[in-house]
Amino acid sequence: MSGHSKWATIKHKKAAQDAKRGKVFTRLIKEIAIAARSGGDPDSNARLRTAIAAAKAVSMPAENIKRAVQRGTGELEGGQIEEYTYEGYGPGGAAVLVNVATDNKNRTVSEIRHIFSKHGGNMAESGSVSWMFERKSHVVIEEDKADEDSLMSLVLEAGADDLRHDGQWEVISGPESHDAVVESIHKAGIPTVSAEIGMLPKNLVKLEGKHAQAMLRLSEALEEHDDVQNVYSNFDIDDEDLEALG
After folding, report:
1. Lower Cβ count inside 10 Å, N or C end of the chain?
2. What is the CATH number of the domain that holds 158?
């Protein structure tokens, strides 16, 4: 997990910059709208409840959240946003999953393919790499906000599968335990850096040197694309290569 964890750390450090550019809000508004198609009541729609909680965590105004829900339920007009997952390989053979939300599939897939090609990767057929990942709840907590023993007992009692450490605490759970785990952490007064359900790699691919640098550039380029919601990969890279990302 260390490679994924380190990349997750980089993404969270970039969150403030992303927020200034509106990237975080754009991503969450799309997620809320898509989730709301299955119902606009977060009490009965777990995906919507998770999306709204993530939006509140980055101080998204309530009016923005309301409009996103209404767009998803059809109360407000707007272009139909669809979600797709693209699969591929990065430099050195690392697997990559790219979740997008777009109102123009042809444009988006062309641009994503170009990003892969430009940075030494290639897109693959559906199912080629998705089997290398599993859907999990992933909660990140700053290292100094909790001690291992108390956090371990707290999250395991709430239904978590594992507590990991790589410069920060990471709580791994099944998707069905996400709400209970996050609620128990917050009730204990412990702030979270992020709390989301995503795709975690089952195994890692070690990358070094040029392959490591190219993979980081590919990952960042994908993350920067306006239609990209999430990027997941199974690379493992040493700290010195990560530091070169800046």
Report:
1. C
2. 3.30.70.980
CATH number at residue 46: 1.10.10.200
Is the Cβ–Cβ distance between 176 and 160 less than 8 Å?
A: no
From CA 181, how far away is CA 174, in angstroms rounded? 10
Question: Same domain for 178 and 168?
Answer: yes
pLDDT digits (tens, 9 = 90+) for 87-136: 999 999 999 999 999 989 999 999 999 999 999 999 999 999 999 999 99
How distant, in Å, are the alpha carbons of 69, 70, 87, 123, 140 from that of 75? 9, 5, 33, 37, 35
Is this prediction's pTM over 0.85? Answer: no
Q: Shortest CA distance to 231 belongs to which of 197, 205, 198, 203?
A: 198
Q: Quick check: helix, strand or coil at residue 42?
A: coil
Instruction: Let me know whether 93 and 183 are in one domain.
Output: no
Mean pLDDT of 33-54: 91
Domain coverage including residue 231: 82-131+203-237
